[in-house]
């Protein structure tokens, strides 16, 4: 995602094992045309691969503001991995925050809840001076 014209994702590291069965789709991904097209379409992102023996595959996204997001891609197919790459590219890198209501009250409005059966006095035009 671009903030003020600056892409937030600066590097993606694909960490996988050469022999593990859980890294099977990651090894296929590296030669897949969809991944190569994704790399060409995103020149602002630096892609690198790491071989780690006896480990499950993960995607690591490093952002401009020194934030890091890690995505587990163990036993996931190529379409899921591409969705995760797109999610890393499109996110800002900031942590998710829970948005709460700023004011807690029993009544939802300042005026109170409207009730149509209230008895209002009737004003006659002759009463006005």
TrEMBL record:
InterPro entries linked: Ribosomal_mL43 (IPR039927), Ribosomal_mL43/mS25/NADH_DH (IPR007741), Thioredoxin-like_sf (IPR036249)
Family statement: Belongs to the mitochondrion-specific ribosomal protein mL43 family.
GO terms under biological process: mitochondrial translation
Protein's cellular compartments: Mitochondrion
Sorted UniProt keywords: Mitochondrion, Ribonucleoprotein, Ribosomal protein
Main localization (coarse): mitochondrion
Gene3D superfamilies, per database record: Glutaredoxin
GO molecular function: structural constituent of ribosome
Annotated protein name in UniProt: Large ribosomal subunit protein mL43
Gene Ontology CC terms: mitochondrial large ribosomal subunit
Species of the source: Peronospora belbahrii
Domain Ribosomal protein/NADH dehydrogenase: 18-92
């Amino acid at each position: 995602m671009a903030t003020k014209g600056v892409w937030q994702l600066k590097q993606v590291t694909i960490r996988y094992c050469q022999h593990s069965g859980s890294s099977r789709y990651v090894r296929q991904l590296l030669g897949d045309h969809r991944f190569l097209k994704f790399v060409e379409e995103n020149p602002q992102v630096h892609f690198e691969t790491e071989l780690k023996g006896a480990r499950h595959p993960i995607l690591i996204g490093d952002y401009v503001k020194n934030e890091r997001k890690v995505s587990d891609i163990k036993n996931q197919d190529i379409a899921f991995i591409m969705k995760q790459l797109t999610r890393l590219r499109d996110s800002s890198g900031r942590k998710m925050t829970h948005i709460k209501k700023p004011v807690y009250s029993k009544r939802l409005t300042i005026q109170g809840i409207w009730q149509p059966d209230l008895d209002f006095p009737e004003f006659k035009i002759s009463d006005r001076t």
